[in-house]
Fold this protein.
Amino acid sequence: MRSSNPVFSREGSFTRESGYAGFGTTQAPQAGSPYATNPYGQSGPYDNNPYGNNPYAQQAPGQQPLTDDQLVEMYRAPSAGPLATGRMTLDDVVARTAMTLLTLVAAGGVAWFALPDRNFGFAVGASLIAFVVGMVISFKRSVSPPLILLYAGLEGFALGAVTKVFNTIWPGIAIQAVLGTAAVFAAMLIAYKTGRIRVTPRYTRIGIAIAMGFVLLLFVNMIAAMFGADMGLRSGPLGIVVGLIGIGLGAFFLSLDFAAIEEAIAQGAPQKEAWRAAFGLTLSLVWIYVEMLRLIAILRGDD
């Protein structure tokens, strides 16, 4: 199943059509073999290989049938784990995500202590560069860990600068936003693992449609703000509603990340793909943090 997550859906990611692991493809029987024709007709229940849709499947060219002795030896040999086969595991995803988030937090700390108060210039510059790097990562066929860490550093620097400004106006808002983001992540992880939330095609289509409308609305609001108009999307009761929708969409993106990671592990994705999973999780967490920061600022008002 092709993932709907924009990070995981491009060619070369979890859903690419290239092979891996030596499973999922069938070899046509040789002429004269008793299995060259299906004795049960065209519509037999075993005509189609149920494992043939694995995007990581491939077959070694010119592979010869194994002898009985080779089969017995393979049967008695210990099973090869993910580490031995170079496949992605959940531990790989956790480790890469931790490295990415630590890079983001470290860069945010540099911005917090090095930049002067109320200076959005550095934040805007870093966020623009991070956006460009993020687009390169998203459309790049192969996974590039240095680019992902570079994105984390730039995004962390931008968030650190913005958070410092917000924390100067509303003391303590930084830790509140961090705790709120962690709470959303934990709640979504529990809901997904317990089956409360299932990533179905209908669920995905509805969520993506809402996300597209939300982004379009924010884009219109930004254009209006450039001409001095205020649509009220980031203040008052309407701002609270918009903030809650934004956080809800971030939680939706997390569910897509969880489903894509689970599917990739089940299909034997290469270990390097754990970096792409870490990038997707980082994007979702950054989205939630920014929306949480804005929502708390609206709720606290002028206190």
User: Anything to note?
Assistant: Residues 96 and 278 are 6 Å apart (CA to CA). The radius of gyration is 24 Å. Residues 236-266 form the longest helix (31 residues). The chain has nine helices and no strands.
